[in-house]
Amino acid sequence: MKIATSSYPSFEAFVFRKHRTIIWLGTIYLLIQFIIFKSLYPFASFIPDSYGYLEAAETNAGIHVWPIGYSKFLQFLHAFTTSDTALVFVQYILLEAAALYLTFTLLYIMNSGKLVAYTLLLFFVVNPLLLWISNYVSSDALFTILSLVWIVQLLWILHRPRQYHIWLQALVLILAFTVRYNALYYPFIAIAVTLAARISFVLKAKNIGISILLIVAFIWYNCDKYKEMTGEREFSAFSGWQIASNALFMYSRLQNDDNPPPQFNVLHQITLKHIDSLRRLRNRPDSLLGVYYLWNKKAPLQQYMENKWGQGINSAKNFKEWASMCKFYTAYGTYLIQKHPLSYAKYYLWPNVINYYIPPIEILDHYNIEGDHVRPLAQSWFKYPDNQVRGFTKEIKILRWHPILVTLANCIFLYSAIMLIAFGKLKQANYSFKTTFFLIIGVWLSNFSFSILASPIVLRYQLFSMMLFFSYGIILLEYIVKNGDSSEN
């Protein structure tokens, strides 16, 4: 069985001829929606991460707590305008454009019907989550944009490869890697797709070579910067803190009778004392899997750092001290995990598996989480007349049902994939169909594994996967229904 190819000779004709009217209507709707939204929420929304990104941008830092890519993006836009509205608009338009790029590519490749096309277009154009994500001074929108463009290039490499797809894939891959380290598994997916693609050996070598070269260069750059600062080569100091934080969430649920190696004694005593104090509380701040052990000033990691250096992580002034804790916290977290592997699976991994399917909304249900003001850094960067910000309402109730969309996207995708295999349709499909299917399956498996192992999952981290799996799941489901009674040609 073969995929029925589109009747349009080119992708451009398919988009701008067949869907010209809906593109115009969608563009007008997006602009009207943005204008209304900014009249209700005239300021961008800030979270604690926002000030780290702004700080790195203002100081032109080479490395920071978070990957440096989004700070460079802020610097680039700041060269043209200091308007936060312009930042939000650029993020929103690019995010919608990337979503539609993915949608039209899948529709063209799979030759989907009008019902599926209208369903997906409505999902992406009307969905308020994309607008809210774009209103944050955060890397979430930019990372999703780059991830969507990256996956589309891989789809074209599998179906109708052109040399510019090779170069664009490599460029977008490294950009995504510098924005968020969730892209750590992207190079492996890209290499597998390149090897499977029906392109010349020379193009395969170019794609794999340039991708690896750019990633290695960035990793080497980061390691050198950390070497200059702390005397230790590290790719990301954040990893050590995250490992220790994940381990402490597990350890706080146990009866603690460990005797750790001597180098951990001071930190371990702080940990035991803190866990004992938490047990006396009716409402524990670590009751849900999250970032409590990473950032709370009373939690053991911040307390130990303050005891050691006389300060916690509050600004770039003590970033060096924060980064220097990486290897020690990696070792401590690893010790606790290796000591209690089953408990780690029970108290950290399993709750994170649940979060993968029903991700907590986290900060997205509140506008400007720190209240009705911004810190001086944001006021200075965006040239606000004062530090006051306002919005129509603080509680964003419309987004509280969005975790269900992630559940729906995963369920539709997994159901469609299982049915495709169970009905024998995958065996009948042609090479392009099979490679696309295995590409998306590979992304799902990689995203699932990386997400639950790396850090506590929240809704904004799963925007890319939700958009990809919902789109492909709906299209795959239509394909199964359409070819239900078809026989192999």
3D structure, described in words:
The chain has 489 residues and is mainly alpha-helical. It has a domain at 238-339. Helices cover 67% and strands 0% of the residues. The protein contains 23 helices and no strands. Helix 5 (84-110) crosses helix 7 (128-134), helix 12 (238-251) packs parallel to helix 17 and helix 12 (238-251) packs across helix 18. The longest helix has 30 residues, at 201-230. The chain is globular.
Report on the biggest sheet. none
Strands, total number: 0
The structure class reads mainly alpha
- Whole-number average pLDDT? 90
Helix content: 55-70%
Radius of gyration over all CA atoms, rounded = 24 Å
What global shape is seen? globular
Residue share in β-strands: under 5%
Number of helices: 23
Order of helices and strands: HHHHHHHHHHHHHHHHHHHHHHH
Unreliable parts = none
Distance between the termini: 6 Å
Task: Give the arrangement of secondary structure elements.
Layout: H1 11-18, H2 20-40, H3 48-59, H4 69-78, H5 84-110, H6 114-126, H7 128-134, H8 140-159, H9 163-179, H10 186-196, H11 201-230, H12 238-251, H13 265-278, H14 292-295, H15 300-309, H16 319-324, H17 326-339, H18 341-357, H19 376-381, H20 402-422, H21 425-428, H22 431-454, H23 463-482
